[in-house]
């Protein structure tokens, strides 16, 4: 494996959309290079990068993990749902946030129970994104938990979870909001 020098090879690979080079860069000793590679691979949405992005979700650098999760979510790979669900248990709130968003993008209702649990996350933004992801999934099992999360939330979190609640209630014809 070749190791890259920040500011030279990685930037050229980004400009050219050189997927094989960016995949190699995920193994670079430099966390900033791994992060840039994961970010760019996510933007390119090239299916050949999926195994490398899945592996990068285990990276020691939390930011690389977040970009890899985002990239896998963008590829909408249902086979990655279990691995992404595991990220909802991370100590890093950014990783939990990106995991909830990716699960919504993938759209597999198998993620519903984990996203329902994420409605109890200590971070408001994670709860908001989990509610939005549940609305995207459109699983009726999410309706009551989203209602409870909305009733317990305050401020902007309440408004954002309320949007997810409205989407679910509209879908299932059970609106209780006035």
Strand and helix layout:
Blueprint: H1 9-16, H2 19-25, H3 31-44, H4 50-56, H5 62-75, H6 81-87, H7 93-106, H8 112-118, H9 124-137, H10 143-152, H11 155-172
Helix pairs in contact: 2-3, 3-5, 4-5, 5-7, 6-7, 7-9, 8-9, 9-11, 10-11
General description of the model:
By secondary structure, the chain is mainly α. The protein has two domains: 1-75, Leucine-rich Repeat Variant (Alpha Horseshoe), CATH 1.25.10; 76-178, Leucine-rich Repeat Variant. It contains eleven helices and no strands. It has helices at 9-16, 19-25, 31-44, 50-56, 62-75, 81-87, 93-106, 112-118, 124-137, 143-152, 155-172. The radius of gyration is 18 Å and the shape is elongated.
CATH topology of the largest domain: Leucine-rich Repeat Variant
The percent range for helix content is: 55-70%
The Cα radius of gyration reads: 18 Å
Q: Note poorly predicted spans.
A: 1-6
**CATH architecture descriptor text of the largest domain:** Alpha Horseshoe
Could you name the CATH class of the largest domain?
Mainly Alpha
Q: Please indicate the percent range of residues in DSSP E strands (runs of 2 or more).
A: under 5%
Structural class: mainly alpha
Reading the helices and strands in chain order gives HHHHHHHHHHH
Q: Globular, elongated, flat, extended or rod-shaped: what is the shape?
A: elongated
Number of domains: 2
Look at the structure and name the CATH superfamily of the largest domain.
Leucine-rich Repeat Variant
How far do the termini sit from each other?
60 Å
pLDDT average, as an integer? 93
